[in-house]
Write a structure and sequence with these properties.
Oligomer: single chain
Structural class: alpha+beta
Order of helices and strands: HEEEEEEEEEEEEEEHHH
Shape: globular
Number of strands: 14
Radius of gyration: 22 Å
Distance between the termini: 60 Å
């Protein structure tokens, strides 16, 4: 009987803390119920690497929405876009890495792009072009049509022809735009035929007029944000 009660207790304990599954990035430990033995499960970067793998150089404050819908924070976070890992500082001052699939939305507070767009990242989208459902996309618009961007960095290796020295650095990859609408994830195409497939038929005239009146460029991200925000605001 005691053994049965113990098993029930352990099951309830694990269910209660299943949403608190984090990895410690400073000492290389996985801070969850499955592995507390101190084995390193983290990627180690070459100390000679220059630059940063993070989209934000400094810690920024953000609210996080977990996979079951619970919102926590604000917390201090950094998003590693080379490894697609979310780092944060816990209440004890430890630097942790969130386990894949745990966080569905990162809503940064007072952190904006150069064109005054607040940084928001989301995961949970259908797999596309090698990115799975755990990949964090930057979110430009929310609603019926979501305009997303794949932001990433890669490690570039260069050799000096004169000295033979090899240097490595983090380099920004070219951002790739995607559209998520009607349950479908697809690469964005900057042409009118593609755009027309996104509108409801009864909204086609209004959207065509909006594009014309506002001289919307389908190759300009700021214009696309205005365009999709307008569409999402239509009742």
């Amino acid at each position: 009987m005691k053994r049965i009660l113990l098993l029930i207790f352990l099951f309830c304990f694990q269910c209660s803390f299943g949403q608190l599954d984090f990895k410690n990035s400073n000492v290389g430990r996985v801070m969850d119920l499955a592995d507390l033995d101190g084995h390193s499960l983290l990627k180690k970067y070459d100390p000679a690497l220059t630059g940063s793998p993070f989209i934000n150089e400094d810690w920024v404050s953000a609210k996080l929405t977990l996979s079951l819908g619970k919102e926590i924070g604000p917390l201090s976070i950094k998003l590693n876009i080379e490894s697609n890992e979310l780092y944060f500082i816990d209440s004890a001052g430890k630097e942790l890495i969130v386990t894949d699939g745990l966080v569905k939305k990162i809503d940064c507070i007072d952190y904006y792009t150069k064109d005054s767009t607040r940084y928001i990242f989301k995961s949970g989208y259908p797999s596309v072009d090698g990115q799975n459902e755990n990949f964090f996309y930057q979110v430009f618009t929310e609603g019926r049509i979501e305009l997303l961007a794949r932001k990433f960095k890669y490690i570039r290796t260069e050799r000096n022809d004169l000295t033979g020295d090899v240097s490595k650095s983090f380099v920004d990859g070219a951002a790739v735009l995607y559209v998520y609408a009607y349950g479908i994830m697809q690469p964005f195409k900057s042409n009118k035929n593609f755009i027309a497939t996104l509108w409801d038929e009864n909204k086609q005239p209004e959207m065509n007029k909006y594009i014309s009146d506002n001289r919307i460029s389908l190759k300009n991200t700021s214009d696309l944000i205005k365009l999709f925000n307008h569409y999402n605001s239509i009742k």
